[in-house]
Design goal:
Number of helices: 13
Strand order of the largest sheet: 3-2-1-4-5-6
CATH superfamily of the largest domain: NAD(P)-binding Rossmann-like Domain
Number of domains: 2
Shape: globular
């Protein structure tokens, strides 16, 4: 079945995700703060571009969103000309932004007051995952709404799972970021050690990537880390935003995250040296500096 769909936010993730919905046969109306990007999307995929989030969401059966942070999300949902004013009763709003669990619960409650559903559905897989339609999606929200949204999410996902009620998708994404932060730091130290020990780093990676040390980070980032290439991928600025949500939630629930807090400090050092837009694998650059 094909639906009327809105997609708000056409960044490096949202642009291809909206494209997969259009390729899936859905009638897609897009909104982007930079209107030229919306026009470019329409030229490539068809559909329509709206001037405001509210206009994009008006009449939609499903509205998708992928923006920057809590305040960006509030702006395009409950701000002036926000999408919530255009949502019809019974519709479903699916948010793919990585945010705090608090804002997800807040908007879930607001949507319920307005007689439609809100699903928090952060993603993992990066730009490549979005472009290849191979994202992992962690959802939180009412079971019925998540089930209705699932076939549309499948347009760009290889894996999706409901983790619980509103906010649980965001909490699961925090778990994901905790794992990534620790893995990248560990891989950085391992490669740094290999180089200082006089080993051929690429040869070592080729061997250990076939054993228990293997990870997505090793498979996709080790070579570029060795070469000092960081001008791509998931930016340090965004990881620090995500880890801020993690550490705030940890203070609330009493969990102890010493490694995550330490890696967050390391990322602040990368920012201080001008690497805010570098890929998160740039952690190794700090060790290279200290090793000289």
């Amino acid at each position: 079945m094909n639906f009327d769909v809105a997609f708000i936010g056409l960044g490096v993730m949202g642009y291809p995700m909206a494209g997969y919905l259009a390729k899936g046969g859905h009638r897609v109306t897009v909104y982007n703060r930079t209107t030229s990007k919306a026009r470019q999307w329409v030229a490539e995929f068809g559909g329509m571009a709206a001037k405001t989030p509210a206009a994009a969401a008006t009449g939609a059966d499903f509205a998708f969103c992928c923006v920057g942070n809590d305040e960006d999300l509030r702006s395009v949902t409950v701000g002036p000309d926000g999408a919530f004013t255009g949502m019809k009763p019974g519709a479903i709003f699916i948010d793919h932004t990585t945010t705090s669990a608090d804002v997800a619960r807040e908007l879930h409650a607001k949507a319920a007051e307005m007689e439609f559903s809100f699903v928090d559905a952060p993603v993992s897989g990066g730009q490549a995952g979005a472009e290849n339609g191979q994202l992992t999606v962690m959802t939180g929200g009412d079971e019925e709404a998540v089930a209705k949204a699932a076939p549309l999410i499948d347009c760009f996902a290889r894996m999706q799972a409901r983790l619980g009620d509103s906010g649980c998708g965001q909490l699961a994404k925090m778990v994901n970021q905790i794992c990534i932060a620790g893995l990248v730091q560990g891989l950085s130290e391992a490669l740094h050690f290999a180089g200082r020990a006089g080993l051929d780093e690429n040869a070592v990676v080729d061997v250990i990537s076939k054993g228990a040390a293997q990870s997505w980070q090793m498979d996709n980032r080790a070579a570029t880390m060795i070469n000092g290439e960081f001008d791509f991928g998931f930016a340090v600025d965004w990881m620090r935003k995500d880890l801020g949500y993690v550490l705030s939630e940890a203070r609330n629930n009493g969990s102890h995250l010493p490694l995550t807090a330490l890696v967050d400090q390391f990322y602040s050092e990368v920012q201080a040296k001008g690497g805010g837009r570098w890929d998160t694998s740039s952690l190794i650059s700090l060790l290279s500096m200290k090793g000289n």
